[in-house]
Amino acid sequence: MEILKVSAKSNPKALAGAIAALVRQEGRAELQAIGAAAVNQSIKAISIARGYVAPNGIDLVAIPSFNEIEIDGERRTAIKFLLEKR
After folding, report:
1. CB atoms < 10 A from the CB of 58, how many?
2. CB atoms < 10 A from the CB of 25, how many?
3. Start-to-end Cα distance in the chain
4. Percentages of the chain per state (helix, strand, coil), in multiples of 5
5. Nearest to 65 by CA among 44, 26, 39, 45
6. Which of these, 6, 37, 76, 80, is most buried using a 10 Å CB contact count?
7. What structural domains and CATH numbers belong to the chain?
8. Nearest to 42, CA basis, from 76, 11, 84, 86
9. Does the pLDDT of residue 81 top 90, yes or no?
10. If pLDDT is split at 50, 70 and 90, which confidence band does 86 have?
């Protein structure tokens, strides 16, 4: 599954559209965010995406977790959101 990487400058509405499309096609989506601003954009997008898929009878659930990743040889902690239908 493709991981959608979210930055502080990500557009929440565009990200919500990508989330909705993945959930409709694959039944789940995964987001990864590093930093408070990126997590904020992720939460906004998840909220908007719930509204996009609700008319289709889909109740979108987000499961957050921590993920250790390496960027330019430096270990960073990312927040990972697993989005699934309930």
Report:
1. 18
2. 9
3. 19
4. 40, 40, 20
5. 39
6. 6
7. 3-85 (3.30.110.20)
8. 11
9. yes
10. confident
Specify the pTM: 0.93
**Is residue 30 within a helix (H) or strand (E), and if so which, with residue range?**
strand 28-33
- Distances in whole angstroms, Cα of residue 1 to Cα of each of 35, 43, 51, 72: 23, 20, 23, 23
Q: Position of tokens 């601003």?
A: 37
* Residue for token pair 């039944």: 27
What is the C-alpha to C-alpha distance for residues 19 and 78, in angstroms, rounded to an integer? 18
* pLDDT value of residue 22: 95
Q: What confidence score (pLDDT) does residue 1 get?
A: 75
